[in-house]
Amino acid sequence: MCTSQLALLQVFFLMVPEGVWPQPSSMSGAAPTPSDVGPASPGGTLQSFSEGSETPWPVPEISTTGPTVATPSVPDNGTVDLFPVLPVCVCDLTPGTCDINCCCDRDCYLLHPRTVFSFCLPGSMRSSSWMCVDNSLIFRSNSPFPSRVFTDAGGVRQFCVHVNNSKLNYFQKLQKVNATNFQALATEFGGESFTSTFQTRSPAPFYRAGDPILTYFPKWSVISLLRQPAGVGAGGHCAESNPAGFLESKSTTCARFFKNLTNSCTVDPALNAASYYNFTVLKVPRGMTDLQNMKFQVPVTLVSQAGSPLLSGNTCQNVVSQVIYEIETNGTFGIQKVSVSFGQTNLTVEPDTSLQQHFVIHFRAFQQSTAASLTGPRSGNPGYIVGKPLLALTGDKSHSMTLLQSQGDGICSVKRHEVQFGVNAISGCKFRLKKVNCSHLQQEIYQTLRGNTNPEHVAIFGNADPAQKREWTRILSRNCSVSAMHCTSCCVIPVSLEIQVLWAYIGLQSNPQAHVAGARFLYQCQSIKDSQQVTEVLLTTVVTFVDITQKPEPPRGQPRTDWKLPFDFFFPLKIAFSRVDSQKSSASLILTLCLLVLGVLKLETK
């Protein structure tokens, strides 16, 4: 009897963790008391504090949310060690002052720092190693290491064993350095203080998407980058240092301001077309290692001749207003062809003259068919994608439908905004009236509102082919009615254009495709008398997209017959059979039920 009691006592000591003792009113298998388990720390890690002189260890991370525990109470034992035994307290940075969340700072004088601080800084608590398994797998613990059972927020009980003397607590001692071993340590662990990564780094064998494109100026033997100036700041000033990315077709717009255009007209390289093609483009980056080999260089060819800036009287002629690069690539073989075209304008020499420039870089595959290149990018395949350009057709040429755009002074600009599918928009600008007859003025304003391309059709889908007329729908349009105005000496001009687009989703509900059902142009006009001295008029354009999708009704099945009988339906049968023999009544009842079931089945089949 004594032997069995000693064995049970030994098992009891193995199953109860070190420093955890059951309360007098609790059983030996109870969870740790509040004084043993601290509050949860960030990341679901708990901190354990054992009573006595034992060194506390952190509780393992059971889940992302720590288990629910009670607020720890202060132990009555005055000999409790107030601070963890750490070789170095790395977060104790203020001598004589308690550093917040530094659980090893002796200046805090806290029995349990975790009860005051929201968390302990890294390195302020002893690291520990825990091995945890599901508690249901453990019948009896005979581990020589401290162990505990914890319950996480999900109610899962984990049996964890604390591994003593964790390697994470090993202290790395500093090496002793003296005159004898100084040179040996410097030679073993030392190296060059400064290294040039550009000189040792070999150029890439080919361009990758987004890489800057290398250019070479033979006249000065200088390697540079292909630039695409972009607007910065509120005024959109041109930033010259913006590099063009390989395979990244982009368009940018920026403004240039000149205090003295007379001096800048023939001197500023940004106004001269020659500065945009007097270089060669490297096919691949490794071409910079052999600049004398022309097979790695691609010259920039002119699509049409562009004149140099010329100051003639009070006008600066042949000023570059638009630059368009067409770059053909062939995969890892790099750039095969580069062409450039220009748009030029004339500037009047005035104080604080401004110029708006437009830069376009377009990439396309080498040996791409001409028909495919003229088609342009799709706005969806097949259905439109919200935010993509709304495709229009003029004759046999496809283009994007556009809106008015104003310059810095509010005057209508040659450059226009693209109409984006599904995005309602409004824009406006000031149009300066010229001293021309009424018909010419009307045509000029109509062209300004619609754009130079004058769209006639709109694409039904985002991948419409210009050669297939059935993939386009005609735009309904009606100009202003002159007869409606009761004025014989008035000039009726359009001042507003509203573009209404009706669209809808079609196809599968799991993959609907947006298509355009119809579009129309609505003009609002006003009359101007010849006697009025009107110098400018405000023009506006509005785009409205209307969703006319008709969602189908959800499918419905045939109604099912729901047979319900009153609760006392068999009451007459019970009364009739209660007076006869039990066996006969049972047989009669079963027969009656069978007849009823057969009748119900026949009705359902009909």
From TrEMBL:
<feature type="region of interest" description="Disordered">
    <location>
        <begin position="24"/>
        <end position="73"/>
    </location>
</feature>
<comment type="similarity">
    <text>Belongs to the tectonic family.</text>
</comment>
<feature type="signal peptide">
    <location>
        <begin position="1"/>
        <end position="22"/>
    </location>
</feature>
<dbReference type="GO" id="GO:0007224">
    <property type="term" value="P:smoothened signaling pathway"/>
</dbReference>
<dbReference type="Pfam" id="PF07773">
    <property type="entry name" value="TCTN_DUF1619"/>
</dbReference>
<dbReference type="InterPro" id="IPR040354">
    <property type="entry name" value="TCTN1-3"/>
</dbReference>
<dbReference type="Pfam" id="PF25752">
    <property type="entry name" value="DUF1619_N"/>
</dbReference>
<dbReference type="GO" id="GO:0060271">
    <property type="term" value="P:cilium assembly"/>
</dbReference>
<protein>
    <submittedName>
        <fullName>Tectonic family member 3</fullName>
    </submittedName>
</protein>
<keyword id="KW-0732">Signal</keyword>
<comment type="subunit">
    <text>Part of the tectonic-like complex (also named B9 complex).</text>
</comment>
<feature type="domain" description="Tectonic-1-3">
    <location>
        <begin position="379"/>
        <end position="548"/>
    </location>
</feature>
<dbReference type="InterPro" id="IPR011677">
    <property type="entry name" value="TCTN1-3_dom"/>
</dbReference>
<feature type="domain" description="Tectonic-1-3 N-terminal">
    <location>
        <begin position="67"/>
        <end position="182"/>
    </location>
</feature>
<dbReference type="InterPro" id="IPR057724">
    <property type="entry name" value="TCTN1-3_N"/>
</dbReference>
<feature type="compositionally biased region" description="Polar residues">
    <location>
        <begin position="62"/>
        <end position="73"/>
    </location>
</feature>
<feature type="compositionally biased region" description="Polar residues">
    <location>
        <begin position="44"/>
        <end position="53"/>
    </location>
</feature>
<keyword id="KW-0325">Glycoprotein</keyword>
<keyword id="KW-0970">Cilium biogenesis/degradation</keyword>
<feature type="domain" description="Tectonic-1-3">
    <location>
        <begin position="206"/>
        <end position="365"/>
    </location>
</feature>
